[in-house]
Specification:
InterPro entries: DUF2252. By secondary structure, the chain is an alpha+beta fold. Helices cover 45% and strands 14% of the residues. It has 19 helices and 13 strands. A hairpin with a 5-residue loop joins β2 and β3. The two termini are 14 Å apart.
Amino acid sequence: MANETKPLTTPKKVSRLRYDLSQIRIKNTVSELQNMGKDIRDKVPFSALAEFKPVHRDVVQGIQHVERAFIKELVPLRHERMAASPFSFFRGTDELMAYDLTKQTATNIPVVISGDAHVGNFGFYASPERKLLFDLNDFDESTIGSWDWDVRRLLVSIILAGEQIKLDEDDLEDIMTHTVQTYQQIIIECFDDHSALERYYFSTEVESFLTAQAEGASLPKLWRKIKDNAPARDSEQVVRKFTTLDDRGHLIFKENAPRTVHVSDKRFKEIATHLRTYIQTVKPDVAVLLSQFHVSDIVRHSVGVGSFGTRCYLVLLTAIDGSHLVLQIKEALPTRRFQGFDVTTRFSQDGPDNGERIVTCQQILQRASDPFLGFYHNDDTGRSFYVRQFRDMKESMDIEKMDKDDFDTYARICALLLARGHAQSPTGALVRGYAGQKRKLVSALIDWSQAYAQQVHADYDAFMAAINDQTLALPAAEDEEDDDDD
């Protein structure tokens, strides 16, 4: 692949963010909102949240619908990852639970939600000031939605991940109880004890944050290990691990087909052009920084479980001083992407670009976001993408190495971060009024989550049966020519 020498200049302006946040902008006082939240209990009693309403759908057909938009040659590896365990399957089918949630009783109190707040989607990353933060770190499904959708997905993930590390039912119920109670406690503190500015300035810097939130409990040794190792995970470390020299002495990414492959010349030029549009969505200081870089190499590089098989790329940038930056470009699929089923809700929006949606929601939910976070839209294909720095001090907790106490502490911290994220929406005061410290709400959400976890197991069994008897056929590519170009 020939090196691209044109710098990342900015040829044209892009539209302003169009994701409509009016549903969470309310002029009532916090006190009024809390009283309104209490009134919602009459319309949606806690007992109604406890009832799981079975949804009749063909899980295999649903997966096939989703995978029509994926890269065909990566689907077998995606299936392999999903087959690892019920929790892995759960991670890879967020759209299935989203569809099921639209059929359940919900409070429908709108806040900006993660949309995929399972225990594996919290992690470490670097702030612009090079501090190590711990927070929500996946926003592909983020949107405006009912706050309890996030809490339910967190609870179900606790059950499935807890089963994987051999915790018994009593242990899991204790952990779920502590998780919901923590969420209730923090959402109360956010609106009773903190001003709007204080909520906005909450810190998730690891050194002070994790120690303060442990509440006297010992933090897992894993926290310390990650804190010590994370600073070394920067672009230069990525370059050392992921690149090599070609026969002309140019630095290029290593290939590991089919997971990591070089793009065609056509795709290379297309991405380089779109990156110049992406620069219009970052802050001016970042745009000036990026103007010092040119594109050296691009590969398609698939990661994760849920997004494995979508169009994801790594871009190697080289600066005028010879230093490097690695950006990750991820395809931004429509939220609630269970194609073939109606997953629209009262909060759904048709107009916004999905890259805009993801960037907007991430910047609201996180206390500090990657300064390179931005987006672009490919008008020729209709596909949307968002951009971020690759592996910049990013790390996740290894749940497999946790015991009960570690997992309990971890789940509480996830609940705390979720509540603080929801509290960034003014409508979070409605949640504070509705949820209170009511134990009946705790029991209701746990009952529903336990019932839904059984549904996940049934869906996983159906998925495995389809894999074993080969009835889960590979999907026809959405656009064969486009896939060849990748």
